[in-house]
């Protein structure tokens, strides 16, 4: 037993320097960052800005790869099953990182078990927007119109089970209205159909819609934060429309496959935090109407736990299943 104990101790001591050496050498080849939604979405824009910074910082290429589908689950599953060596990361949103486990039966991965938290990058309000010629000019107008025309208002969301979908379901539930749910594979195709009039209303992450609102191509009916946002100071919140206590905030985070060496996770965390504090990072956030967050992996773990506790009962009450 004594020999076995010494043998195991020796093995552990031998492996420890090896792990440290691997972490010190990382990255020594291109790194893949999976975005589980199509190119052009708000999460994709931010991911590419972060990837460019990481490429400059580490001297190796960080490649953004879009793997859209199933509300982010295709990209999420690919990262959950990837080798935990620091060369595959998920740059995701609430759906694949947290909330999909409440909605999808037979999900190919468990976000709490299969992901290691890295860093909470940024937060963003959700926007409720309508075509410029839609009869409703405000959220109360939309609700009144939907009550008069049950099932005839088409509401586009960037995917089944996304925060846009949950927000839409919750508003309909609270207001007692019935609107037709139209899921898309990301924000880009949704915006195309909104501009073309194929859908009347969109509930989605705000940043991508700001230029369209400013150009008068679409109309912002409400934002989902508890307070009005600086980029749309004249647009009321959902709470102001009569939904007391309502808040739904989009967020963007980086996670890795469980088992990724903590030294590598720490390197990535430190680099992203430095980006968020830099002038360039602040400029990117401001351009995209995002609030930088940052913090430690433990901060992200606690934040995700809070989101699960907050939205789990809402999803169950709305009976959102995939």
From TrEMBL:
Residues 1-23 form the signal peptide. It comes from the Bacteria. PANTHER family: BLR1237 PROTEIN (PTHR42928:SF5), TRICARBOXYLATE-BINDING PROTEIN (PTHR42928). This is ABC transporter substrate-binding protein. The lineage of its organism: Bacteria, Pseudomonadati, Pseudomonadota, Alphaproteobacteria, Hyphomicrobiales. Belongs to the UPF0065 (bug) family. Keywords: Signal. It comes from Bradyrhizobium valentinum.
């Amino acid at each position: 037993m004594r020999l076995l104990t010494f043998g195991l101790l020796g093995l552990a001591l031998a492996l420890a320097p090896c792990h440290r050496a691997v972490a010190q050498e990382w990255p020594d080849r291109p790194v893949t960052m999976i975005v589980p939604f199509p190119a052009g979405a708000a999460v994709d824009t931010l991911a590419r800005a972060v990837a460019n910074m990481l490429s400059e910082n580490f001297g190796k290429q960080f490649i953004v790869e879009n793997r859209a589908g199933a509300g982010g689950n295709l990209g999420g599953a690919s990262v959950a099953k990837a080798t935990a060596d620091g060369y595959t990361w998920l740059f995701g949103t609430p759906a694949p990182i947290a909330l999909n486990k409440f909605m999808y039966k037979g999900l190919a991965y468990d976000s709490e078990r299969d992901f290691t938290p890295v860093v909470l990058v940024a937060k963003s309000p959700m926007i409720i927007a309508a075509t410029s010629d839609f009869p409703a000019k405000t959220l109360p107008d939309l609700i009144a119109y939907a009550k008069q025309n049950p099932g005839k208002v088409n509401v586009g969301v960037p995917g089944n089970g996304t925060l846009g979908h949950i927000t839409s379901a919750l508003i309909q539930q609270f207001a007692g209205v019935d609107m037709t749910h139209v899921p898309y594979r990301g924000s880009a195709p949704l915006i195309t159909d909104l501009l073309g009039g194929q859908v009347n209303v969109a509930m989605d992450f705000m940043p991508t819609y700001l230029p369209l609102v400013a150009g008068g191509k679409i109309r912002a009916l409400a934002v989902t934060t508890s307070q009005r946002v600086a980029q749309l100071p004249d647009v009321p919140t959902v709470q102001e429309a009569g939904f007391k206590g309502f808040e739904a905030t989009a967020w963007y985070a980086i996670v890795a496959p469980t088992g990724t060496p903590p030294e590598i996770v720490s390197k990535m965390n430190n680099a992203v935090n430095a980006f968020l504090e830099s002038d360039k990072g602040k400029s990117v956030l401001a351009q995209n109407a995002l609030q930088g967050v940052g913090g430690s992996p433990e901060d992200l773990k606690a934040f995700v736990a809070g989101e699960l506790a907050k939205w789990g009962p809402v999803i169950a009450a709305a009976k959102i299943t995939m």
